[in-house]
C-alpha cells in the first residue's frame, strides 16, 4: 500500500528560493528553512527519496535551529555550489554549510559501471554533507531526516549501525540504501532519524547522508576536509573558464555552475532541469518532467560552453549526443534519458498533491516520441560547431551527418509538433522549417569539410529550396516571420532566425520579426512563447512568460543593432535572477515570480548567449572565449 500523502496546510517556498546542489551524478534542492526537499537516487531521473517539493508530506531532511525557519542570510561560497546559510536566534548564531561531496576518483580495483566519458581526477562521493558551527552565543540545533522512497510511496526501516548513536541506516525492499552518519547522537522516531543538541560558541557538528558503498566522513575533521575539497573542486573548475571583466560576470559564472551541476558526468548528458512538475501556471496543469536530455539543447549548450571556454564539458555533451545518434541514426528522437534511454513513458502520481496544489504530478515525458523537425537542425548545427572548434570533420561522425541530413531532406515538407512540443494537431511550424534548412545548410558545410563536394552541392540545393519555401509561405503581409503557414500568429522561436543566420541581421524581414515580437508578443516587457488563444497546444489555462525567449530577444535586438534596448532588457532580466543567481523556466509578468522546473538549463544557456552579445556589442570586442557557430557568416 502506498503511504497516504495528501494536501497539507503548510505553505511551499517560492521556487526561486530553493538552493541547488550537485555532484554531477545527482542533485538536490534545499529550501530556505534548511530542509532538503528534493533528492532522487541513484540518478537525477530516479524516483525521489525526498519529495516535499511536490507534497509537504513527501519526505525531507531538515537541519536548522529549533523553532526558527527563516535564515538571516544564504549564499553560495564564491565560485562554488557549496551552500552557506547563516541563522540568527534570540540566543545565538549558527552557520550551516551544505554540499554534495566531491572527492578523489574511487574506482581503483575495477572500472566504473556507469562512466562512458573519461573519468577525471575528482568524482562524486555520493554523500550529502551538512556541517554546522555556532559562532555566537548558544543555539538549540534540530535535525530531522525522513526519507520516503519511490516518490513517497515506501517508508523506511531505520536501524543502528554498531554500538553507538552515531550511525543509522534506512532501508526498504528494492530501494537504495541510505546511511546517516553524524557527530550528534541520532535517535529513531517512527519514519524519522532525529538529533537534538545545544550548541555553544565554537561548537561544530556534521551530518552526512550517504547513498553508496563509499565511506562518508566519520569525524568533524573529516567532514570539514570534505567540505573544503568540494569547494576547491568547484573553484578550480570555474577558474578553467574564460569570463569578461564586467559587472555581469557573476551571472555568467552562476549560469556556468548551474549547467555543470545539471550535467551527468558518467555519460556527458545535460538535464533540461533538476525537477519534475513544477507548474508553468500557479496551481495549473502544465506540469512536465524535465529530468531528461533534449537534442534541441545541444546547439545552445555548445554555444554557451564553448563561448565560456569549457571545452571538456562541451565535448562530453557532444559525445553523449553522438552516442545516442550512432545507436539509431535513422530514428533520431527529440530527447533521451541521461543514460541514453529511448523510452520515457509518462505517468501520473495521483498520491502527490503537487507543488502548491498544481496537479497532475507527472514522471516520464511522452514528448519523447513526438515528431519535432527541429531536431535534425539542432544536431547538425552541433556537429558543425564541434567540427569548427577543432578545424576538422571527424570521420566517425560522417555517417551520422548523412543519415540526419537525408532525414531532414525527406521530411521537411511534413507538419510536426514544433519545438514547443504542442499536444494539439501537427502544423507547418516555420521554426521547424528553419531548423530543417539549418540541417541542410550545415550538412552542406560539413560535406565540404569532408571533401564531398558533390554531396554538398546536392544538399545546398535542398537548403535553397527550403529557404525559398519559408519566405513564400512563412512571412505575412507585414514582412514578419509567423508561427505557422497560413497564420499571422507570432512565435518567439522565430527570434532564433538571426542567430541561426537564416537571413542577414540587416534584412528587413528579420528586423520586422524581432521588433514585432518585442512589441506584440510581450507582457510587461517579457516574452511569451506564443499566445495560447492563437495556438492549439492541446492544453488549457495560461502560462507565464518564457525566460529563455526574453533572453533570445536580447540577443536578437543586438543582432539588428538595437543595442541600448537589448542592454535595458538584459539588465531587467538579470535583476529577476533568484537570490542565488538561478532561473526557473518562466517568470510571472505581473509579480516576477519564478514558474516551471528549476533550475532550467535552457534559460541559463540563453542567458550566456544574451549577456555575451550585449557585452561584445558594448565593448566591441571578442577578447574572451570561443566564437560559436551562430556568429559564423
Automatic annotation (TrEMBL):
This is Trehalase. Pathway: Glycan degradation; trehalose degradation; D-glucose from alpha,alpha-trehalose: step 1/1. Pfam families: Glyco_hydro_15 (PF00723), TREH_N (PF19291). The lineage of its organism: Bacteria, Bacillati, Actinomycetota, Actinomycetes, Nakamurellales. Residues 249-611 form the GH15-like domain. It comes from Nakamurella endophytica. Belongs to the glycosyl hydrolase 15 family. Its EC number is 3.2.1.28. Coiled coil: none annotated. Keywords: Carbohydrate metabolism, Glycosidase, Hydrolase. It catalyses: alpha,alpha-trehalose + H2O = alpha-D-glucose + beta-D-glucose.
Amino acid at each position: 500500500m502506498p503511504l497516504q500523502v495528501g494536501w497539507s496546510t503548510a505553505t511551499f517556498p517560492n521556487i526561486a528560493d530553493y538552493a541547488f546542489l550537485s555532484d554531477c551524478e545527482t542533485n538536490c534542492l534545499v529550501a530556505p528553512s534548511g530542509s532538503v526537499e528534493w533528492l532522487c537516487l541513484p540518478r537525477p531521473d530516479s524516483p525521489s527519496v525526498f519529495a516535499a517539493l511536490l507534497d509537504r508530506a513527501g519526505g525531507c531532511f531538515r537541519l536548522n535551529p529549533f523553532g526558527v525557519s527563516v535564515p538571516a542570510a544564504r549564499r553560495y561560497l564564491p565560485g562554488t555550489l557549496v551552500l552557506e546559510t547563516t541563522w540568527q536566534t534570540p540566543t545565538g548564531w549558527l552557520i550551516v554549510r551544505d554540499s554534495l561531496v566531491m572527492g578523489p576518483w574511487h574506482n581503483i580495483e575495477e572500472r566504473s559501471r556507469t562512466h562512458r566519458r573519461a573519468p577525471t581526477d575528482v568524482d562524486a562521493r555520493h554523500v550529502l554533507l551538512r556541517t554546522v558551527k555556532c559562532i555566537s552565543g548558544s543555539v538549540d540545533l534540530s535535525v530531522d531526516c525522513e526519507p520516503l522512497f519511490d516518490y513517497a510511496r515506501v517508508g523506511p526501516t531505520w536501524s543502528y549501525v554498531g554500538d553507538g548513536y552515531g550511525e543509522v541506516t534506512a532501508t526498504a525492499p528494492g530501494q537504495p540504501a541510505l546511511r546517516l552518519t553524524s557527530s550528534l547522537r541520532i535517535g529513531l522516531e517512527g519514519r524519522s532519524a532525529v538529533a537534538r543538541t545545544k550548541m555553544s560558541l565554537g561548537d561544530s557538528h556534521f551530518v552526512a547522508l550517504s547513498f553508496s558503498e563509499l565511506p562518508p566522513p566519520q569525524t568533524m575533521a573529516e567532514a570539514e576536509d570534505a567540505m573544503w575539497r568540494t569547494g576547491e573542486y568547484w573553484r578550480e573548475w570555474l577558474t578553467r573558464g574564460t569570463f569578461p571583466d564586467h559587472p555581469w560576470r557573476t551571472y555568467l559564472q552562476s549560469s556556468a555552475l548551474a549547467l555543470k551541476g545539471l550535467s551527468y558526468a558518467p555519460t556527458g548528458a545535460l538535464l533540461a532541469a533538476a525537477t519534475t512538475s513544477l507548474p508553468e501556471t500557479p496551481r495549473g496543469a502544465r506540469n512536465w518532467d524535465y529530468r531528461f536530455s533534449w537534442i534541441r539543447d545541444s546547439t545552445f549548450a555548445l554555444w554557451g560552453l564553448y563561448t565560456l571556454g569549457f571545452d571538456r564539458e562541451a565535448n562530453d555533451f557532444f559525445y553523449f549526443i553522438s552516442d545516442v545518434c550512432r545507436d539509431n541514426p535513422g530514428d533520431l528522437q527529440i530527447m533521451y534519458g541521461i543514460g541514453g534511454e529511448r523510452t520515457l513513458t509518462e505517468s501520473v502520481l495521483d498520491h502527490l498533491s503537487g507543488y502548491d496544489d498544481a496537479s497532475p504530478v507527472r514522471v516520464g515525458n511522452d514528448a519523447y516520441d513526438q515528431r519535432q523537425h527541429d531536431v535534425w537542425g539542432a544536431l547538425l548545427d552541433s556537429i558543425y560547431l564541434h567540427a569548427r572548434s577543432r578545424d576538422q570533420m571527424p570521420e566517425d561522425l560522417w555517417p551520422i551527418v548523412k543519415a540526419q541530413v537525408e532525414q531532414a531532406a525527406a521530411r521537411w515538407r511534413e507538419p510536426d509538433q514544433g519545438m514547443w512540443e504542442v499536444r494539439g494537431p501537427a502544423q507547418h511550424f516555420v521554426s521547424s522549417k528553419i531548423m530543417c534548412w539549418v540541417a541542410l545548410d550545415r550538412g552542406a558545410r560539413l560535406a565540404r569539410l569532408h571533401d564531398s563536394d558533390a554531396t554538398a552541392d546536392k544538399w545546398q540545393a535542398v537548403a535553397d529550396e527550403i529557404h525559398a519555401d519559408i519566405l513564400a509561405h512563412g512571412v505575412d503581409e507585414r514582412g514578419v516571420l509567423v508561427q505557422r503557414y497560413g497564420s499571422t500568429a507570432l512565435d518567439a522561436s522565430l527570434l532564433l532566425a538571426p542567430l541561426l543566420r537564416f537571413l542577414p541581421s540587416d534584412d528587413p524581414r528579420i528586423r520586422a520579426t524581432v521588433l514585432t515580437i518585442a512589441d506584440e508578443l510581450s507582457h510587461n516587457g517579457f516574452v511569451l512563447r506564443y499566445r495560447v488563444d492563437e495556438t492549439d497546444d492541446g492544453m488549457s489555462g495560461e502560462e507565464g512568460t518564457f525566460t529563455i525567449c526574453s533572453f533570445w530577444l536580447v540577443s536578437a535586438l543586438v543582432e539588428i543593432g538595437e543595442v541600448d534596448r537589448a542592454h535595458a532588457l538584459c539588465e531587467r532580466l538579470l535583476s529577476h535572477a533568484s537570490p542565488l543567481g538561478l532561473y526557473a523556466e518562466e517568470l510571472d509578468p505581473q509579480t516576477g515570480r519564478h514558474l516551471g522546473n528549476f533550475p532550467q538549463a535552457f534559460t541559463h544557456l540563453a542567458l550566456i548567449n544574451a549577456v555575451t552579445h550585449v557585452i561584445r556589442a558594448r565593448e566591441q570586442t571578442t577578447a574572451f572565449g570561443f566564437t560559436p557557430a551562430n556568429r559564423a557568416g
